[in-house]
Amino acid sequence: MNSLIPEASGRPGDDPIFSINAEANRRRAAGESVINASLGALMGDDGLLATMPVMFEALAAVDPRRAAAYAPIAGPPPFLDAVRRDALGDGPLFDRSVAVATPGGTGALFTAIVNFLEPGQALYVPHFYWAPYATLASHTGRAVETFPMFDAAGGIDVDAFERGLVLLLQRQGRALVILNFPCNNPTGYSLDDGEWRQMAAALERASAHGPVAVLADLAYAHFAEERYRWARALAPLSDRVTLLAAWTASKAFAQYGARVGSLVAVPKQPSERAAIENALTYSCRGTWSNCNHLGMLAITSVLVDPALRARADAERDALVTLLGARVVAFNTEARSLGLHYPRYEGGFFVSVFTPDPAHTVAECAREGVFVVPLDGAVRVALCSTPTADVPRLVAALGRGVAAAEAVAR
Ligand code: PLP
Fold first, then answer.
1. Residue 255 Cβ < 6 Å to ligand 1
2. Alpha carbon distance 11, 226 (integer Å)
3. What is the value of pTM for the model shown?
């Protein structure tokens, strides 16, 4: 008899993105000139991982005896204070918020899912979403429900969002909405102020049908022009809708491996505060127990020490500028070829629409260009594409989409 329970049998061993990455690396090692636009880490134009030197100084400066000790289950209070302020900005949301430490944004998403949705219920996301949301949902006995992300004019489809949310609330009595903006993975899309206001109005109306929690997945927020738009727009609803934020040092401090993150929550009423704090802390104890103490202490000093913080901001600005040059190059080339893709102003990824993503991916791969298939599009990781390679990348995409269109016709 199989030792694995039926639910765990037959799980895919590898994330499809990592298989595409392995193929790109294999062909590069065999001497081919390859553009690997599949992986979500920011690489310099030299092809090496981009890092922020201030982080290594901050890590080295942590007292070894503190670093080696267990961290508090919920996370060190100075870390939580610094992260709450960074996630929410100064103001009333910060004053009312609670937080727990989590291993990256992934841990924050897990903690939100198990505390704000019942088993069997579905979280609610746009049609284009980061694939591990589905893994997290299925692993925790939940599901994913989507709404069409874009309307005919190419903006966020607020009507579809509200219609689907109301139906979901009528069906399951509560909702957890996850909005990965700004710099959405996989599309690169950021909502503007007007779109956030419309989303807030839709959320306000929908919340009459049952408790709604809205999680801002801030994985890429530090790479946006404006990172507090969501908080400004949703703050007026914060007594009707539970606001959550998944904060992570992975991209913001180029510390993907440190696994430093936090789930920040703004309780609707002061009376809910202790229960939410206890529930989130209980989840920490029942999963990873406590997080990387060294990483949290280093991130705390970089967030609160003015000199370290200024250096971190300057080093990150350089990374934003590096990525910005690729975004400009992509927009220039892609517009001149007439590619269809969402408004793209910054962020690690952009997606290009195609009638047959598998065909487009295969055509690009024949040319040594590796991108990831989605439903109705391919995801292009500009974060891992050197600026000089962007014209070749876009040209391959143009041919890959044209080939798919020819087959679809
Ligand atoms: N959310 C999105 C949309 C992401 O793309 C990622 C990482 O790629 C994460 C959350 C979480 O990353 P981490 O767990 O490293 O913070």
1. no
2. 39
3. 0.97
